[in-house]
Amino acid sequence: MRRIYLILVVMLGLALLLWKFSTSQRLSPNVDGTNSTAALKTVLKPAAVAQPFTHSMPDTNSTTGEGEVMKLSGEQVATYLLKYKRSAESLLSAFDETHDKAMLKEAAEKFPNDPRVQLAVLTQDALDKALTPEARKLWLDRLKESSPDNGLPNALAAMDDLNNGRTQEALAEIKSANEKAGMSAFYAERLQSLEEMYLVAGLSPQEAKAQATHNMLLPLEAKMKGIATQLAELQKNYLTSGNPAAAAEMAALGVNLGKRWGDPNSSLFLINELVGIAMQRVVLQNLDPNTYYEFLGKTAGEGLADLKKQQEGVKTISTGMGKLFPQMSDGDKMIFMDRMKLYGDRNAWSWVQQTYGTNQ
After folding, report:
1. How far apart are CA 224 and CA 295, in angstroms?
2. Is the dihedral of CA 360, 4, 21, 307 positive or negative?
3. Fewer CB near the terminus (10 Å): N or C of the chain?
4. Cα 211 from chain centroid?
């Protein structure tokens, strides 16, 4: 259980480090196998595109103190793919584990109508470069059709439009995203599939859960922050040209999008919540802090203060988890990981508080 403890504590520690706006963290390799801090920097600073980063950070070897990243052998991955008949989700999990683009290409060829495959094709930077604008639009249209109530395809379409100077089209897509029932990146499904892969490879249930959390990539966080950053640039242009009403409209779009992406009641990970906070802040900070805005129901300054309190709440969870997790039994650690996968970090933390005491 030592590995599980280290992975989960550092997982929550990442949320704390994000709260502190640190850019010195070690990130898991992207699909090309290179290490980069660009992803974390992009989440925290203005930019439009970045490499994926992980929900958790690498484990630490209890003997050597060196970073230890467990990787399955080719034979283990092949056994898993055979067992699950090279299904869409098994190919995606194998891709997450191996970073072998052939796995994703096979999934795209065999299962072009699977929304998880569609999203993976659209969000993996290594394949973005190979997709023509026409091909990207085709995959986006497929994702919109397969996930009609999901606002994420519209957000991704807006990102493409903003990157190509199609401002009005981008704003229409963001409005559509904000009108959908929710925004799903299929994180829970991906986490479950990774766990199953590690079980087939022979890991214990505890190790499989921890390893799945450890190796899961989150390629969308920086992209979502990039949308808000570009809305903020539009804001500045409107303010410079003397159009504060249009600037406020950009803020309303960015705030609503950030709330939906980082909704504490529906986000699986605390990192999603932090990115949602960052998205809201980047568009609110350009407004007059003393002016009341209808879309906020308060002044911009009050809105920023509320976001700071929400950030503080994430910090409290991160530090409190570090204190209480060592007190938990092995069985309760398993329950915690299941609750995190099913209901999200916040719900899992509430259960820990109820079981082991109040947060300090």
Report:
1. 21
2. negative
3. C
4. 17
* One-letter amino acid of 303: G
Q: Quick one: tokens of 165?
A: 């100077």
CA angle, residues 106, 261, 19, in degrees to nearest 5: 105
Burial of residue 331 (number of CB atoms within 10 Å: 0-12, 13-18, 19+): exposed
Would residue 344 be called left, alpha or beta, if left means φ above 0 and alpha means ψ between -120 and 50 degrees? left
Structure tokens at 118: 């569609």
Distance (Å, whole) CA 152 – CA 110:
23
Return d(Cα 352, Cα 348) in angstroms, integer: 6
Contact status, residue 276 vs residue 261, Cβ threshold 8 Å: yes
* Nearest to 22, CA basis, from 274, 333, 339: 274
Longest dimension (CA), the chain: 64
Separation of alpha carbons 355 and 352, rounded Å: 5
Residue range 127-178, pLDDT digits in tens: 656 788 999 999 999 999 999 999 999 999 999 999 999 999 999 999 999 9
Q: What is the pTM of this model?
A: 0.82
Which tokens is 2 given? 């030592």
Q: Give the residue among 331, 327, 326, 324 at the shortest CA–CA distance from 350.
A: 324
Give dist(CA 28, CA 214) in Å, integer: 9
DSSP assigned state of 246: H
Residue among 305, 260, 261, 314 at smallest CA distance from 281:
305
Residue 62 pLDDT exceeds 90: no
